[in-house]
Automatic annotation (TrEMBL), chains A, B:
It comes from Pseudomonas xionganensis. InterPro entries: NAD(P)-bd_dom_sf (IPR036291), ODC_Mu_crystall (IPR003462), ODC_N (IPR023401). Transmembrane segments: none annotated. This is Cyclodeaminase. PANTHER family: KETIMINE REDUCTASE MU-CRYSTALLIN.
Length: 314, 314
């Protein structure tokens, strides 16, 4: 059994085309019905403003499956610790023995979450998309844009965040680290006005994006909502979109944007089905497409297998 | 973060009164409603005759919670490997950081499972119980009897197992290791005829114990069933018992004996409530009492905390 720490993992696993391919392969397997993926195990530790999620999936035929444990303790910053943490364990799918422990402290989750946004944009955003609007200014605000560059020629970023200071810091960081010009906006509507792709990456409990904010032809990825209390999109967006996609129907209904639109009567596709089709789900450039991501165990099993292969030098 | 292996853990954690107290404290907390315990995460890996369960619980006020991962791969013996395996991770309930990894390979599960049987007998079996009948001849057939000795003065064992050779081996082992006389029987009914306590510890998918097998005054602990396909008790036993107890109602209904008696209309107590009451649930010596154990996350958090305290020399 091998044990790897965050530094070892981060040295090997980057936001690159190989990692994108790994996550996309996970979604493809999901789309082909080749994945065993039980509901997320979730526990609150209310007295300490904490929660822990456990996700897993097995892709039939793959030699190893991952179990990921993600604690989120939101009073940690006051203690000088990050809120999010965690590890992934890789088990032999033949014997159930632990093969590797990836003490990634949430790094692989950050990567596979950003790459899911890239997969969504690959099959949904206009080919010629160059401008991204980001709502939120946290770590995923950076990583989602970095991942989008793997699938579209991103040239400019617009950002809106509740905290204007954080939006300014984000702008400076994106310029410095990624050489991308970022414009800070006072509202989501202003940030989205000229966007080809919008990414919402907030812990919002009320919609941060409204139907009238969206220009024609835009693709929206909502990646913030991952529990029943969180919501980023006004339900009118789900109803109005020309194409509506989620990573996993059961999860979006329980924890994602669909949870807030129980009466929605329309076609909803799964991202895996799009990947399997191999084609864009967009038939015209002026369509509005939406993808809700809640985060799936198959992404974890895909990225953990990929990381282990790199770490083992295979 | 500390990492401990099975040998280190097994040297410290034994079937003794201190360990019993730890598991009983877990049930007491459950009985007082002080436990957060989400449903078990369970995944099948059908192509390799495998499954993996993840259990967890947090006891309010306790400094650490455990997450236990239990793979069961039933083709392993042909590869010279044990079927059951696994590990427990202990997390700080304040920060969510991993505190310790217990690579116990299922050892702590064996111990806390046996001790749950002892807790059940403590509150349900007759004080004067001396004779145990065991149905099944696996590891728990040994450990359950060893654990019962912590709460009752066990003098004799009767065993019935599907495989008579295994029953003979079990008898020899119990004599050698525990100095207990064991009689092998050709039927469950014969094994139970003179028993004060009956323990079923099989992977049976059809009842191995019937109402007419049970003498008056007996206490029955059924610990085999932990998935919807498994069943050890004829539903008439659940209906006929004077006192019926389960470790957790939701689990017994989903995975345990109650799953096979959906129309049962009677009082069913939880073991934690008995522990909190501090008294036997038996009001007369001739009553028949039954306890169904499915295995709970709170036992894992209790035994893992206890193990870590011993290992840390606290």
């Amino acid at each position: 059994m091998q044990i790897y720490n965050r530094a070892q993992i981060a040295e090997k696993v980057r936001l690159d085309h190989a990692a994108l391919e790994a996550v996309e392969a996970g979604f493809a397997a999901l789309g082909r019905g080749e994945v065993e993926m039980p509901p997320i195990l979730s526990m609150n530790i209310a007295e300490n403003n904490g929660e822990v999620d456990v996700k897993t999936a097995h892709i039939h035929g793959w030699p190893r499956f991952a179990i990921k444990i993600s604690p989120g303790f939101f009073d940690n910053p006051a203690l000088g610790l990050p809120s999010l943490n965690g590890l992934m364990l890789l088990f032999s799918a033949k014997t159930g023995l632990v093969d590797a422990v990836l003490f990634d402290e949430g790094y692989l989750t950050d990567i596979r979450t950003a790459l899911a946004g890239a997969v969504a944009a690959k099959y949904l955003a206009r080919e010629a998309a160059t401008t991204v609007a980001v709502i939120g200014a946290g770590l995923q605000a950076e990583l989602q844009v970095a991942a989008l560059r793997l699938v579209r020629d991103i040239q400019a970023v617009h950002v809106h965040a509740r905290d204007p200071l954080k939006a300014q810091q984000y702008a400076a960081q994106m310029q410095a680290r990624h050489g991308l010009p970022v414009t800070v906006h006072a509202s989501a509507a202003a940030a989205c006005a000229a966007a080809d792709i919008v990414v919402t990456t907030t812990p919002a409990r009320e919609p941060v994006l409204h139907w009238h904010d969206l220009p024609r032809g835009v693709h929206v990825t909502a990646m913030g909502s991952d529990n029943p209390h969180k919501q980023e999109l006004e339900p009118a967006i789900l109803a109005g979109a020309d194409v509506l996609v989620v990573d996993r129907l059961s999860q979006s209904r329980a924890l994602g944007e669909l949870h807030h639109a129980p009466d929605l009567a329309r076609e909803v596709l799964e991202l895996g089905a799009l990947v399997v089709s191999g084609r864009s789900a967009r038939s015209r450039d002026d369509q509005i497409t939406v993808c809700d991501l809640t985060g799936t165990g198959v992404q974890d099993t895909a990225i953990a297998n990929y990381a282990a292969r790199l770490l083992e030098g295979a």
